[in-house]
């Protein structure tokens, strides 16, 4: 007879990414009596009955590390099935804390460079959290050459911006270009990006990408909804979404990041209702994917975006500036 027993509810766990302001985070090592012993972990633990995620986080951090949580920013909520158990992780960034680290429960604790953390050292459910920590602050989206001064001018402007060194991701978007022109535009920008160590996300029909160098892919909502599984690409996969439902539906593709917005009013989408910072915070708190905030933002928006749970800023004009002589 088929097994008709109801599926057990996932175990709710609150995790804290405790940051020291110098690019390091606090990690511990799971003890012999724990699930997946020997693996590294972020401080935290399972919630007690009727305990809120933030209350459980504060309690667990105090019990494990001796630290007091002064600020907790919810930034991910995701579920993972290990086969023998299911977990629902409520992940918080903890940029502000008090006290001194103490190994209160006998497990080793140490500060590690966030950029050097290896997913293989952690339980699999921690993958999105590690990506959140290792993604760059700024994602530059290209202006459409069809609406500006042409391919060469946009390539020059983008290359000049990338040479500043603070943009770690480039989305090559050009909805006004025909296929051959997009391929030329993308080849030129991929060459520039590779020379500067900037990661690329190609925003184009998937059947165009075979003629381009290996790179990541950005999938607008109309494209990812047409897919049933993650496409085989060389780099990261990014998706566009506008609400938590969309983010969770896109989860079947296991995207590495999502771009959401608009956070503020924009000239390009005058009829869209802005999320605002509070709306962005509600979305990131429930997102299973690290989020970039988009829409009316610039480099100066990074701090409020991170305070709302986003990992960084995505922008066109806000990161590139206006073209010489007028708008695009």
Mean pLDDT: 92
Say how many strands there are: 15
Percent in strands: 25-35%
Q: Round the Cα radius of gyration to an integer and report it.
A: 21 Å
Q: Could you tell me how far the N terminus lies from the C terminus, measured between alpha carbons in angstroms? A: 65 Å
Largest sheet: 8 strands, parallel, barrel
Structural class comes to: alpha/beta
pLDDT < 50 runs, ≥5 residues: none
> What is the string of helix and strand elements?
EEEEHEEEHEHEHEEHEHEHEHEH
* Largest sheet, spatial ordering of strands: 8-9-10-11-12-13-14-15
Q: How large is the count of helical segments?
A: 9
Which outline best applies? elongated
Which percent bin holds the helix content?
25-40%
3D architecture notes:
The chain is of the alpha/beta class and 328 residues long. The protein contains nine helices and 15 strands. The strands form three sheets. It has an eight-stranded parallel barrel. Strands 4-1-6-5 form a four-stranded mixed beta sheet. A three-stranded antiparallel beta sheet has the order 3-2-7, with no helix packed on it.
Features:
single chain, alpha/beta, 27% strand, 328 residues, elongated
Write the layout of secondary structure elements.
Blueprint: E1 11-18, E2 24-29, E3 40-41, E4 44-46, H1 53-65, E5 68-81, E6 86-98, E7 109-113, H2 127-134, E8 138-141, H3 151-162, E9 167-173, H4 179-196, E10 199-203, E11 216-219, H5 221-224, E12 237-241, H6 244-250, E13 257-260, H7 276-286, E14 291-294, H8 302-307, E15 312-315, H9 317-320
Parallel strand pairs: 1-6, 8-9, 8-15, 9-10, 10-11, 11-12, 12-13, 13-14, 14-15
Antiparallel strand pairs: 1-4, 2-3, 2-7, 5-6
């Amino acid at each position: 007879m088929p097994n008709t027993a109801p599926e057990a509810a996932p175990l709710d766990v609150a995790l804290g990414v405790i940051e020291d302001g110098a690019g390091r985070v606090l990690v511990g090592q799971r003890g012999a009596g724990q699930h997946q012993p020997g693996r590294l972990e972020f401080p935290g633990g399972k919630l007690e009955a009727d305990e809120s995620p933030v209350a459980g986080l504060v309690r667990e951090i105090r019990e494990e590390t001796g630290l007091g949580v002064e600020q907790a920013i919810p930034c991910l909520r995701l579920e993972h099935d290990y086969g023998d158990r299911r977990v629902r992780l409520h992940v918080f960034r903890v940029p502000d804390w008090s006290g001194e680290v103490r190994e209160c429960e006998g497990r080793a604790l140490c500060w590690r460079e966030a950029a050097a953390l290896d997913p293989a050292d952690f339980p699999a459910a921690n993958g999105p959290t590690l990506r959140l920590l290792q993604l760059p602050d700024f994602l530059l989206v290209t202006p459409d050459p069809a609406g500006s001064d042409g391919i060469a001018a946009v390539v020059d402007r983008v290359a000049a911006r990338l040479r500043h060194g603070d943009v770690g991701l480039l989305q090559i978007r050009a909805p006004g270009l025909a296929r051959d022109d997009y391929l030329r535009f993308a080849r030129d920008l991929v060459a520039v990006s590779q020379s500067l160590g900037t990661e690329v996300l190609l925003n184009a029909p998937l059947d165009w990408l075979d003629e381009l160098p290996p790179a990541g892919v950005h999938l607008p909502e109309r494209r990812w909804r047409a897919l049933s599984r993650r496409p085989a690409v060389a780099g990261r996969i990014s998706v566009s979404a506008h609400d938590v439902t969309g983010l969770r539906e896109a989860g079947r593709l296991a995207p590495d990041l999502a771009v959401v917005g608009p956070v503020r009013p924009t000239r390009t989408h005058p009829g869209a209702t802005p999320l605002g910072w509070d709306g962005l915070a509600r979305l990131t708190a429930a997102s299973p994917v690290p989020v970039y905030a988009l829409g009316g933002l610039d480099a100066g928006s990074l701090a409020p975006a991170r305070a709302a749970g986003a990992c960084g800023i995505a922008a066109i004009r806000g990161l590139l500036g206006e073209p010489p002589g007028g708008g695009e």
